[in-house]
């Protein structure tokens, strides 16, 4: 007896939404045995990881705050992934958003302009779009692989930020530390939930989710993207421009990632630092896949990934390396991709004799 | 005027910097020749780096460290193999998963080894070449792995073009349906190629942590795995050009270290961008010619394989 995969005629909806649940269950099981293996009480560790951080009002606000960048970037990525366009460089677009937004905040440092934070956000989104335009241009004009170019630009963006906070944008009164001035109160994101760090940028989440849903389900551009991903030949035959799909998805994700970068520095951080993001751009890739490239799913998945990120910080108190968060992300993505086999295939048991008859 | 001692120092560090790239890219080249794009090179290098370092530090045996690094890389690459060949997962997604998982796993288990350093590998003196005037001294400063990586490139090139094994591998990459119809096991050939790629990426990682630095730092590959993937495209799937590309990157990378000696008035952060910018530049220059890419890329590169019978 052996197992065989038989293609389904139609993707299974049960498996489509069941696969993320299965992957999460497998990841938590992995976590249980990992904590057991390194000599911690697995139940206590899982509690410290997944429950304790969000077991208070402040914890809840921090959870929402961490889910915001993941959801916004994940929404953008989901659009591109639908059309098989791979922007892996959101992390770099985020950094450029931080630089662009930060530069505006620092330029208006002493101007007392009410609502500076709006300009900061706009500048961040524009800077992120500009950075995303590079791989889009190289793809559409020179056929260069967007995965590699967008990824390389992450490292360039990191160095650019490092250069600026060590030089041009460094705080002149900062004793030479590589960080900018603290932004003026006008440039800082107003709080949405007083007493916490959750700011009004959170309102961008429902707006972006609705906009992406509308784009993908009620607009011709969204339809073209879906055809481009599901049946590339049909899209070409229908005359859908591949270049426009590339531009649309890169500018959208770049703009959202740039906005996230600006809101990070103008929100919880309040200044430019050499490192802005704890890997939001990469985690958002998992968010997009886990959320089934669908806006509601992406928002839910962003909250799970946010929990993985803040839980990882929390179990440090138990002496668990903080890298456990990235390990969980990796396990989650691997188990999700493996579970996805059930969407397109049925697993059939075949006996040695019955193989031909049933296969 | 650049003096010869500085020039030799630059060339030596460029060749050392190129070595992990050559190893990892050579592995990826074989994987791609068999028809699979494995974007997990970065993750496999990190796994090889941390395991190689752990073994090297505890035993002091470099050969063993490299072997374990290679085995760890190969074993780790099988996750990609199973996802792609058994579970029919999109190759890009599976490779990304491997990179994320490798980064996380190596950082998690590498915590114990962080901040400790070991004695690097001693250079060897090549008999005849080290007698040469001016550049001869270069051949007293390179370690054995630098030469082994170059030898491996020649051997892999010969195997791919001159042997039956190479022919089968290329057949599987060019047209998996025909290869399958001829009775070759596409899945087995690809598994072997993926494991080979993992082993070489692991060795590249082990070279980084045991010889070049020599210490373990979380995420120490800093995009070298991705540059290796780009190198394969740059080399248009030809091993000899891969070495040239890696040396170019080596030269550009060491500018950050030697920039001051050369009197370059460029901030170090800007010099540190160079390898990545050059990668983008060469990718653009090569990819611009779509026909050349199409003629040189394996025919079934990136396409999923399902046996028809």
Molecular shape of chain B:
globular
CATH third-level topology of chain B: ABC transporter involved in vitamin B12 uptake, BtuC
Structural class by helix and strand composition of chain B: mainly alpha
Please indicate the percent range of residues of chain B in DSSP E strands (runs of 2 or more): under 5%
Low-confidence stretches of chain B: none
The N- to C-terminal Cα distance of chain A equals 13 Å
Calculate the mean pLDDT score of chain B and round it: 91
Largest sheet of chain A: 2 strands, antiparallel
The CATH C-level name of chain B is: Mainly Alpha
Radius of gyration over C-alpha positions of chain B, nearest whole angstrom: 19 Å
Helix content of chain A: 55-70%
Q: How many helices of chain B does DSSP assign? A: 12
Radius of gyration of chain A: 22 Å
Average per-residue pLDDT of chain A, rounded, comes to 92
Please describe what this structure looks like.
The complex is a heterodimer of chains A (359) and B (309). Chain A has 359 residues and is mostly helical. Chain A has a domain at 69-292. Chain A is 68% helix and 3% strand. Chain A has a two-stranded antiparallel ribbon. In chain A, 52% of the residues are buried. The model of chain A has no long low-confidence stretch (mean pLDDT 92). By secondary structure, chain B is mainly alpha-helical. Chain B has one domain: Orthogonal Bundle (ABC transporter involved in vitamin B12 uptake, BtuC). In chain B, helix 1 (4-33) packs across helix 10. The mean pLDDT of chain B is 91. The chains are: A mainly alpha (359), B mainly alpha (309). At the A-B interface, helix 6, helix 11 and helix 13 of A face helix 3, helix 4, helix 9 and helix 11 of B.
Question: Which key features would you list for this structure?
Answer:
heterodimer; A: 359 residues; mainly alpha; two-stranded antiparallel sheet; 15 helices; 2 strands; 68% helix; globular; B: 309 residues; ABC transporter involved in vitamin B12 uptake, BtuC; 12 helices; 70% helix; 0% strand
């Amino acid at each position: 007896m052996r197992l065989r995969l038989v293609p389904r005629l139609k993707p299974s909806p049960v498996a489509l939404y069941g696969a993320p649940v299965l992957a999460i269950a497998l990841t938590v099981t992995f976590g249980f045995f990992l904590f057991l293996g390194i000599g911690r009480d697995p139940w206590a560790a899982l509690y410290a990881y997944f429950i304790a951080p969000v077991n208070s009002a402040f914890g809840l606000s921090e959870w929402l705050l961490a889910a915001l960048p993941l959801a916004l970037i994940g929404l953008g990525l989901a659009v591109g992934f639908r059309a098989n366009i791979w922007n892996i460089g959101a992390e770099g677009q985020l950094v450029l958003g931080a630089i662009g937004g930060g530069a505006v905040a620092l330029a208006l440092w002493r101007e007392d302009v009410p609502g500076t934070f709006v300009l900061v956000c706009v500048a961040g989104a524009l800077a992120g779009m500009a950075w995303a335009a590079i791989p889009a241009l190289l793809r559409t004009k020179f056929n260069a692989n967007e995965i590699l170019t967008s990824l390389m630009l992450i490292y360039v963006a990191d160095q650019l930020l490092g250069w600026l906070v060590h030089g041009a944008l460094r705080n002149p009164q900062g004793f030479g530390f590589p960080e900018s001035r603290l932004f003026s109160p006008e440039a800082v994101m107003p709080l949405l939930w007083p007493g916490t760090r959750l700011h009004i940028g959170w309102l961008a989440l429902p707006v972006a989710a609705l906009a992406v849903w509308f784009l993908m389900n009620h607009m011709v551009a969204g339809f073209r993207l879906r055809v481009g991903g599901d049946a590339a030949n049909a899209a070409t035959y229908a005359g859908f421009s591949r270049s426009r799909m590339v531009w649309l998805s890169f500018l959208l994700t770049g703009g959202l990632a740039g906005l996230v970068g600006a809101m990070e520095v103008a929100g919880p951080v309040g200044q430019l630092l050499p490192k802005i993001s704890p890997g939001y751009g990469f985690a958002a890739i998992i968010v997009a896949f886990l959320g089934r490239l669908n806006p509601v799913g992406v928002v839910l998945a962003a909250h799970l990934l946010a929990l993985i990120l803040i839980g990882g910080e929390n179990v440090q108190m138990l002496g668990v390396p903080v890298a456990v968060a990235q390990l969980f992300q990796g396990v989650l993505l691997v188990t999700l991709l493996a579970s996805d086999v059930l969407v397109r295939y049925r697993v059939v048991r075949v006996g040695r004799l019955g193989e031909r008859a049933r296969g | 005027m650049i003096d010869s001692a500085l020039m030799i120092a630059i060339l030596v560090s460029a060749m050392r910097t190129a070595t992990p790239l050559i190893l990892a890219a050579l592995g990826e080249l074989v994987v791609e020749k068999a028809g699979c794009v494995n974007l997990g090179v970065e993750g496999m290098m990190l796994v090889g780096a941390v395991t190689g370092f752990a073994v090297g530090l505890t035993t002091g045996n470099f050969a063993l460290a490299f072997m374990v690094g290679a085995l760890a890389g190969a074993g780790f690459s099988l996750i990609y193999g199973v996802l792609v060949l058994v579970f029919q997962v999109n190759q890009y997604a599976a490779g990304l998963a491997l990179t994320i998982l490798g980064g996380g796993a190596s950082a998690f288990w590498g915590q114990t080894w962080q901040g400790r350093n070991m004695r690097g590998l001693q250079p060897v003196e090549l008999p005849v070449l080290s007698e040469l005037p001016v550049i001869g001294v270069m051949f007293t400063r390179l370690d054995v792995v630098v030469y082994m990586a170059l030898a491996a490139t020649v051997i892999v090139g010969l195997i791919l073009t001159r042997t039956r094994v190479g022919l089968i591998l290329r057949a599987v990459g060019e047209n998996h349906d025909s290869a399958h119809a001829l009775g070759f096991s596409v899945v087995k050939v690809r598994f072997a190629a993926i494991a080979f790629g993992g082993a070489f990426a692991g060795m590249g990682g082990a070279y980084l942590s045991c010889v070049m630095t020599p210490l373990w730092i979380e995420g120490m590959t800093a995009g070298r795995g991705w540059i290796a993937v780009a190198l394969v495209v740059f080399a248009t799937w030809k091993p000899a050009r891969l070495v040239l590309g890696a040396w170019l990157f080596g030269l550009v990378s060491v500018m950050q270290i030697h920039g001051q000696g050369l009197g370059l008035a460029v901030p170090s952060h800007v010099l540190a961008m160079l390898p990545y910018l050059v990668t983008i530049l060469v990718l653009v220059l090569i990819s611009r010619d779509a026909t050349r890419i199409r003629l040189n890329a394996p025919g079934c590169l990136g396409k999923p394989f399902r046996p028809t019978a």
